[in-house]
């Protein structure tokens, strides 16, 4: 059977949640209250993102320099090589933003990977775009579930790798789940089968 891997970015490919770190360290006061509304599902990613990024008074060059301190998780380079060697499909699916995702991937020579995410452009303030949101659900800016479902409709066995709130819907529709952090806790609470991982070497043991 054909295999496809849908991989979260923040806290999964990267060791730390880069998007959250940008908000926490660079946004003015008020970001936490907005974030709490998102966690409680009182607002979606689009509204949360626009409100929080409005509190950031630094331009894109500053952001790109800021994210130089963030590393990718152990084994991700080897994982990519495994994907290519076996002709597996792989897409990075993130509810984060291209301004830092592309910068980090480029630093590791991975700029040619397929990425589906939200967009953040600076022009006298931040302008956010959410081109992959679901028509049925307005919570996530980038509907990862649609990405999983598209692969499944084409006959792929879908493996989902993630750690956070925005990974829940997509992972439930996947055939195999690799989870850590919040997603792991959710799977355990809901009695959903999953494989635990800390880095991509862990995942490669199961492939």
Annotate the secondary structure layout.
Elements: E1 2-7, H1 18-26, H2 31-39, H3 45-53, H4 60-66, H5 76-85, E2 89-97, H6 98-107, E3 115-122, E4 126-129, H7 144-153, E5 156-162, H8 168-173, E6 176-179, H9 181-189, E7 195-196, H10 200-204
Parallel strand pairs: 1-2, 1-5, 2-3, 5-6, 6-7
Antiparallel strand pairs: 3-4
Helix pairs in contact: 2-3
Please give a structural write-up.
This protein is of the alpha/beta class and 207 residues long. It has a single domain (2-204), classed as Rossmann fold, CATH 3.40.50.1000. It has ten helices and seven strands. A hairpin with a 3-residue loop joins strand 3 and strand 4. Helix 2 (31-39) packs antiparallel against helix 3 (45-53). The chain starts with a strand and ends with a helix.
Q: How much is the average pLDDT? A: 95
Structural class: alpha/beta
Please write the CATH class name: Alpha Beta
Ranges with pLDDT <50 over ≥5 residues?
none
Evaluate the radius of gyration: 17 Å
Q: Could you estimate the helical fraction of the residues in percent?
A: 40-55%
Distance between the termini: 13 Å
Number of helices: 10
Helix/strand order, N-terminal first: EHHHHHEHEEHEHEHEH
Tally of domains = 1
Tally of extended strands?
7
The main sheet comes to: 7 strands, mixed
Strand order of the largest sheet: 4-3-2-1-5-6-7
Query: How much strand?
Result: 15-25%
The CATH topology: Rossmann fold
Q: How would you name the CATH homologous superfamily?
A: HAD superfamily/HAD-like
Shape: globular
């Amino acid at each position: 059977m054909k295999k496809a891997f849908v991989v979260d970015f923040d806290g999964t490919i990267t060791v730390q949640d880069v998007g959250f770190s940008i908000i926490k360290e660079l946004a003015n006061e008020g970001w936490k209250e907005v974030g709490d509304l998102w966690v409680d599902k009182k607002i979606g990613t689009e509204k949360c993102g626009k409100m929080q990024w409005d509190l950031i008074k630094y331009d894109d060059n500053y952001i790109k320099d800021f994210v130089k301190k963030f590393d990718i998780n152990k084994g991700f380079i080897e994982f990519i090589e495994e994907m290519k060697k076996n002709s597996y499909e792989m897409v990075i699916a993130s509810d984060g933003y291209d301004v830092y995702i592309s910068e980090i991937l480029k630093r590791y020579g991975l700029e040619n990977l397929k990425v589906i995410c939200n967009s953040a452009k600076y022009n006298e303030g931040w302008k956010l775009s959410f081109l992959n949101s679901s028509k049925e659900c307005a919570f996530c800016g980038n509907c990862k579930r649609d990405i999983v479902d598209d692969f499944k409709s084409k006959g792929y066995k879908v493996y989902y790798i993630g750690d956070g709130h925005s990974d829940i819907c997509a992972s439930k529709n996947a055939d195999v789940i690799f989870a850590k952090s919040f997603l792991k806790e959710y799977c355990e609470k809901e009695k959903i089968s999953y494989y635990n991982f800390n880095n991509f070497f862990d995942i490669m043991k199961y492939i």
